TrEMBL record:
Positions of the Molybdenum cofactor sulfurase middle domain: 529-647
Recorded name of the encoding gene: LOC106756103
Domain Aminotransferase class V as annotated: residue spans: 47-168, 238-495
Protein name: Molybdenum cofactor sulfurase isoform X4
Gene source species: Vigna radiata var. radiata
InterPro entries: Aminotrans_V_dom (IPR000192), MOCOS_middle (IPR005303), PyrdxlP-dep_Trfase (IPR015424), PyrdxlP-dep_Trfase_major (IPR015421)
Name of one Pfam family that matches: Aminotran_5
Family annotation (Gene3D superfamilies): Type I PLP-dependent aspartate aminotransferase-like (Major domain)
Length: 664
């Protein structure tokens, strides 16, 4: 690894984590990997910390994919040509590669390719043999894609039970510790009349679902859960009268956890495992897999059939003979064979580094970042960061994945909004994620949100991806950073420095005698002074700073007066269109002009602040549950913004004049 003389902080980090960080025994060091395979991060001076959302593909990986596709001919695997036969062989080998990654024997398991992990989970929900005596049990910390299975269970009259397991028993749990450290929350049943008809006449099957790693907190669930539920379910679940009958099957959502710690199915024989490939190695998207135990697959009841899933069918009578191979029964239509061809190049990257080394590498970065965030204090001694999850261990935490979710507090104990953190991070070229991450159970659990809180927040207009981050003084989401195999110490350090410089307040020394005198004069010298004001004329685009600025009855004059709208009517935000962050703005009040620039556009755009309003240019829009009257601009202006952000859009502005009331 390269020398880092003069960088005392990194030298200390390497003393603590050098045997884990950077692939010291690998074919390339982390510095070499970043310099040769992720040059785009350096060119853009970008810190990417959303690997739980999607990790990054490497240059080498994509070069291999491109060379593969441009030097070979791959035909539809349902055809009989030589090119199609070659494709079929590669698809078969890809299935084996997926099974091998999770140490699953092809004699016991089959890989079914899907359009993603969500489609894999949906397939289980649709085809599972539910009846009114079945139970669907799931841990609180599950993605919405798992919670959606509940609709199938309840629709068949089955019962649904949410399970809250104390996180301090992961890993190494036993049946005894689990039974004393879990609480069950039964969801109201549907089709109750049908469920009261009596005992079931056939076999009863139940499903238990949990993530290998929580995408909110990073908690890694002990895979002992698989064996405990499958072997000791009657003893463990006997504490509740809601779980009496039938055989238990286990589903693992490994979409997040697989990237750094895939489940070992030879030790923990789950019945179903959902996998996402872009979370493993960045590319391809739109491809996932369901790893299914062969004996469990035989119980699934599939209704729909399509091309590729039948041996024969007759158009004008009720006759169909389905294929008998497991993957043949469940892969409707032609699989995404070019995407499947590509995954071997991603697996080659992971194999060269080894998953064990990747896990240690990202763990070192996560541990360092947690440690630094927890150590931050305001000048008055109060904590800056509130972290969610189990973060008390002084060792590399194998029970925690490379995810850190947190919120930030001001010196007075009030919260910084997570959207404020995200916007400032974006201006510093740091990409992270905020919100609840489609994990409502974990979000409510860690943020202490009651059912009443959640319902009232929704009724108040709060929805996913909006800007409502603090409601009634409480955060309704969190900030999340996550690391991938190509993340570096420098990424973590820049993020830690960003939090320290942006959100940590120094000690405030106040002379209380002068403070009382100031109160008499109507002015208090608190020791703070306003250094600058930042105005963001166009919502989600770059702002500019000023030493003083006029106020209106709505706040800073011209602040967020303009928005960009998609052709479908959606108001665009930087969260969905990151390119908006590269659009810079400046207002010259003396000229009455808004200047707008973009690296994608040659000309600087000028917009007159006080434009004449024409009746036919006025329209209504809805933004976060409120109606606004706005006016639109000409085609030339809209074309400029479309080029600037790389997608078709139009500029809208409030046409009501803003009365100036004072200047700060």
């Amino acid at each position: 690894m390269a020398s880092h003389m003069g960088d005392g902080a990194k030298e200390e980090f390497l003393r603590d984590f050098g045997e884990h960080y950077g692939y010291p025994n690998g074919p390339k060091s982390i510095d070499q990997i970043r310099a040769t395979e992720f040059k785009r991060l350096q060119f853009q001076d970008l810190v990417y910390l959303d690997h739980a959302g999607a990790t990054l593909y490497s240059d080498l990986q994509m070069e291999s994919v491109f060379n593969d596709l441009t030097n070979n001919v791959y035909g539809n695997p349902h055809s009989q040509s030589d090119s199609s036969s070659a494709t079929l062989d590669i698809v078969k080998n890809a299935r084996l590669q997926v099974l091998d990654y999770c140490n699953a024997s092809p004699k016991e398991y089959t890989c079914i390719f899907t359009s993603g992990a969500t489609a894999a989970l949906k397939l289980v929900g649709e085809a599972f043999p539910w009846n009114y005596s079945s139970s669907f049990m799931y841990t609180m910390e599950n993605h919405n894609s798992v919670l959606g299975i509940r609709e199938y269970a309840l629709g068949h009259g089955a019962q649904a039970i949410a399970v809250d397991i104390d996180e301090d028993i992961h890993p190494g749990m036993t049946g005894e510790t689990l039974s004393s450290k879990m609480s069950l929350h039964q969801v109201q049943r549907r089709n109750v009349a049908e469920s009261l008809e009596g005992e079931p006449t056939g076999d009863v099957y139940n499903l238990f679902a949990f993530p290998s790693e929580c995408n909110f907190s990073g908690l890694r669930f002990g895979l002992d859960l698989v064996n405990i539920i499958k072997e000791d379910s009657s003893k463990i679940l006997g504490i509740s009268s809601v779980c009496k009958n039938g055989q238990w099957m286990v589903l693992i959502d490994a979409a997040k956890g697989c990237a750094t710690m895939p489940p070992d199915l030879s030790k923990y024989p789950a019945d179903f495992v959902a996998v996402s490939f872009y979370k493993l190695f960045g590319y391809p998207t739109g491809l996932g897999a369901l790893i299914v135990r062969n004996d469990a697959a035989s119980l699934l009841k599939k209704t729909y059939f399509s091309g590729g899933t039948v041996n024969a069918s007759i158009a004008d009578i009720d006759f169909v003979k389905r294929r008998e191979g497991i993957e043949e029964m469940f892969e409707d239509g032609t699989v995404s064979f070019l995407s499947i061809v590509s995954i071997r190049h991603g697996f080659k990257i992971l194999s060269s580094l080894t998953v064990s080394a990747i896990s240690r590498h990202v763990a070192s970065l996560a541990f360092y970042t947690r440690k630094m965030l927890l150590a931050m204090r305001h000048g008055n001694g109060s904590s800056v960061c509130i972290l969610y999850g189990h973060h008390n261990s002084k060792k590399l935490q194998h029970e925690m994945g490379p995810i850190i979710s947190f919120n930030l507090k001001r010196p007075d104990g009030s919260w910084y909004g997570y959207r404020e953190v995200e916007k400032l991070a974006s201006l510093s070229n740091i990409q992270l994620r905020t919100g609840c991450f489609c994990n409502p159970g974990a979000c409510a659990k860690y943020l202490g949100l009651s059912h009443l809180d959640l319902i009232s927040n929704t009724e108040a207009g709060h929805v996913c991806w909006d800007d409502h981050d603090i409601i009634n003084g409480k955060p309704v989401g969190a900030v999340r950073v996550s690391f991938g195999y190509m993340s570096t110490y420098e990424d973590a350090k820049k993020f830690v420095d960003f939090v320290g410089s942006s959100f940590v307040s120094p000690q405030n020394h106040i002379d209380h005698g002068n403070q009382m005198k100031g109160l008499e004069n109507g002015f208090v010298d608190t020791g703070y002074y306003l250094k600058s004001i930042t105005i963001y004329p166009i919502k989600s685009c770059g702002g500019f700073s000023a030493r003083s600025w006029p106020l209106s009855s709505n706040g800073l004059t011209y602040d967020r007066q303009w928005v960009l709208k998609s052709p479908t009517g959606e108001i665009l935000t930087q969260k969905k269109v990151p390119e908006m962050g590269f659009v810079s703005t400046l207002i010259d009040l003396s000229q009455g002009i808004l200047f707008v620039e973009s690296p994608r556009c040659k000309e600087r755009l000028q917009i007159t602040l006080e434009s004449n309003v024409y009746e036919d240019a006025i329209e209504d829009i809805e933004l976060y549950g409120q109606r606004y009257e706005v006016y639109s601009y000409d085609n030339e202006t809209n074309a400029w913004f479309s080029e600037a952000i790389g997608r078709t859009c139009s500029l809208l502005s409030s046409y009501l004049s803003l009365k100036k009331v004072c200047v700060i």
